[in-house]
Input
Amino acid sequence: MILKKLKPIHKYLFQYRYQILIGALSLIVTDAFGLAIPWLIKDAIDAIPSYKTTGVDKTASIVFNYSMLIVFAAIFQGIFRYVWRVYLFSVARKIEYHLRNDYFSHLLKLEPGFYFKNQTGDIISRGTNDLNAVRDLAGPGALIFIDTITLISISLSLMLYINWKLTLYCLIPMPLLTIVIYFVGDMIERTYERMQQKLSELTTRVQENITGIRTIQAFRQEDNEIRRFSKLAKDYVKYNVLMAKVNGVEEPVIFFISGTSMNVLLYFGGLGVMNATNSLGELVALSGYLMLLAWPLFGLGWLVNIYKRGIASMGRISEILEVQPEICDGAKTDYGIKTLKGDIEFKNVSFTFAGKKTPALNNISFKVRAGQTLAITGPLGSGKSTVCNLIPRFLDACGGEILIDGADVKTIPVPILRSSIGYIRQEPFLFSDTIVENLKFGDMDADDKTIREFCEISKIADDIDDFADKYNTLLGERGITVSGGQKQRLAISRALLKKPNILIFDDTLSAVDNRTEEAIMAGLETFMKNSTTIIVSHRISSIMNADEIIVIDNGEIAERGTHQSLIAAEGIYAKTYQKQKLKFEIETESV
Output
């Protein structure tokens, strides 16, 4: 059962099997030397009375020899203890490393829809706190398991061999330990899982508050957020306290059982010495082994604690690892496709978001040839961005076909598809790194000259030159240190550096002024001649030169044609154009 629950780390247990074996054998040898010491003490004590017959000097020599053996046993015990600590704990760290990489790599394979349904804080909590608990299971947990089995089995065997009657007396209180461990273990698993859930909620709240700090401060909601955080923190503390109470039951019970067993041994063993049914050395040896048993008994309770925590955490991690990406290469993938020219065709494409009844797109059809420009406009929420997300397969169509170069988009290898597309969103994401490293996301091998050229196209080069550190300027989280327009222009440069055959601008110039927009579009003209370009925009000035313009309304194509033909049709497009033209004229006159 435990092996099934630990399936994600099976391959790593096999990979490091020799290190685990060396560590386990070293641990057993360490315990063997430790178990030899009480036996040597027994023989030394039983040899002392012989001085009456063999003489003091000979007896002293025998006792000295035993003491030297005890010293050597302790030395070798220390050496092998070092070996097992190095091997077992290093393997646990390596397994943690691999599992953490697997977890992160798997997250990168999951489509955006997964992140719509799962909170960031919960995902982070599973990849940190829960993963640490799994590491403890693979490291200290494995150690305690081997140590406990070795010490208990060998100690009891030696005790039974020395004096089976006294050993059985000592075991009388042990059934109580079994009962306590059973009930405590069940409570630990349930309490720990709930505690981790509360930690996930707490992490999510912190992440959201830090990300949205400007909104919180703008609306003066600091006190409300403190109260909400305090409530979540109290819930988390409540389960931590409950966990401490549950854990607190084990140690007193174990010490009580150990103390009771020692009292039983001293009473019956002492009577045996006085009645000559057992020797003093036997009593001392049994006392030593009983004291050695105190650790595995305590370790048994600790093992249950670590096991229950680790299994609960492994379950939470497995929930993520077992999520299969809905958008990935499959049986229908044609790996013979290596490049894309950029012919795009939508055939009666429909799409409905999960949990929604009204389709976001309904029977959308259009075709754009390689090197042509298609513009998409329409009211907010009409489905424009959904069209853009379907092309690189961030979403998959619910009906109809999407073809690129005549091939169904679902047959094109996902890496080939996405590497051929430069997608710039309205709200682009910038990493907490330098400007140049953000730009190199488009081409990691790009030199300074090439980067500068593409920054000139997006009209961000002059802005960068104004920064103190130029291209080495460190951006804050999500690019907080630059304006919205600068973010968009940096994102354009980053996408252009990919030199993609398909360019998608999803309302990318919404945060720049009209003059900058015109300059950027002029700079893009040469580049766009070699790429299939899809421009989504509310601004008619951004799309009026497109080869074809489609107007989407309520998920359907309401109008289509060139700028001139749509103006002549006097529909939605023409009315929008007239409003924007009038607004621009008013703003120009006021200046």
About this structure: The mean pLDDT is 81.
